[in-house]
Design brief:
Elements: H1 5-31, E1 37-39, E2 42-47, E3 50-58, E4 65-73, H2 76-83, H3 96-99, E5 110-114, H4 121-136, H5 144-153, H6 161-171, H7 174-186, E6 194-197, E7 200-204, H8 205-219
Antiparallel strand pairs: 1-2, 2-3, 3-4, 4-5, 6-7
Helix pairs in contact: 1-4, 2-6, 5-6, 6-7, 6-8, 7-8
Amino acid sequence: MEATGLEIGREETKQRRALNKAFLQAIKNRAKGSAWRVSKGVVFRDFDGWFIAAPSAVWLGKRRTQIELKFKPMTLDPIFWEIVETETNVEMPLSFRYWGAWTCSIPALVEHELDERGADPTTMADEAFDWLDAQVEQFKSWTTEKFLDFLREHPRTNSYLATVVTTLFLLGDFATAETLCKEAIKRGDRGGFSVGRESGPSRSFPELALAWLDRKRRSTH
């Protein structure tokens, strides 16, 4: 009996699921003995004070395998945790800075399509790590100011309000951060986070950031 298009699609999807499973295992194997760690398919490390994360996966709907590079200063999330009153997160494993819901989210700096024509997971993993090792060298010359510029020039910069404000705090530019928070409150932008209070309504990230700033100013006087 001749196979239908649906059956062909199902079979190919099954094959790609198997390829993805084998590829992620190859990623774990390749990371052993290196400076990279792996958590649920995401490769990450602390490189010269930068948290670098690289999610990768085999697409199921297309013949495509992609890896992305994301990064942020290691000193960023601890300030964010002070703002949202979750300071104990500093004790969490390094991978939490990528997977944790209460962290500074970051867009991808660059993405790379891996060659899967041979569909050899080990070769694909080798290519992924060669690409990563070449990419991280650029962070030796990155600064927090350059990171902020990257965030503010991103087409979806408003989606990263909490990260932008926290970076401004990190740089000591309190006036600009305060202005951004007040503008966000006016337009009803909660910055993607809110913290509930037993004695009253929840507070948005901009409100929490202003409260953090007030505490910071009072502590220096």
